[in-house]
Amino acid sequence: xxxxxxxxxxxxxxxxxxxxxxxxxxxxxxxxxxxxxxxxxxxxxxxxxxxxxxxxxxxxxxxxxxxxxxxxxxxxxxxxxxxxxxxxxxxxxxxxxxxxxxxxxxxxxxxxxxxxxxxxxxxxxxxxxxxxxxxxxxxxxxxxxxxxxxxxxxxxxxxxxxxxxxxxxxxxxxxxxxxxx
Length: 181
Known about the structure:
The chain is mostly helical. It is 68% helix and 0% strand. Helix 6 crosses helix 8 and helix 7 packs across helix 8 (158-179).
């Protein structure tokens, strides 16, 4: 697979967006009206929404405000934030709010996958794998790579998170370049 030239991405910006999403999702799950109000959200209005998807959309509109832009990296950050919110607010998947370690791991995996998939471009289906299967494999591999980073247990710094993201991207680039040579 050849990686095409793509817009410059900043792992720190992606992690910052994921962090904002996680903080507001946790505030909603914990009923922290003050934290939500500081962000311009109303707990009662969010609670009254008929679906989790609508809650995600409302919080996402605050996390990814209009000033974020409309370029490819901004859209990727919106996707990551939406995944974070949906995952954290899914009470079937997460009966209690995920802890900081789980949130960090999930965010790292999402960021690795989104950045890699954007770099890889539109991988077409082959006889061996469809586009959907390829994307699923990338997300699975990215979550496994994030779990191996062990950053969550050590109270990861921004620099360590960025390093884990870069290491994951490097691994996926080597793996898929080798698989498609």
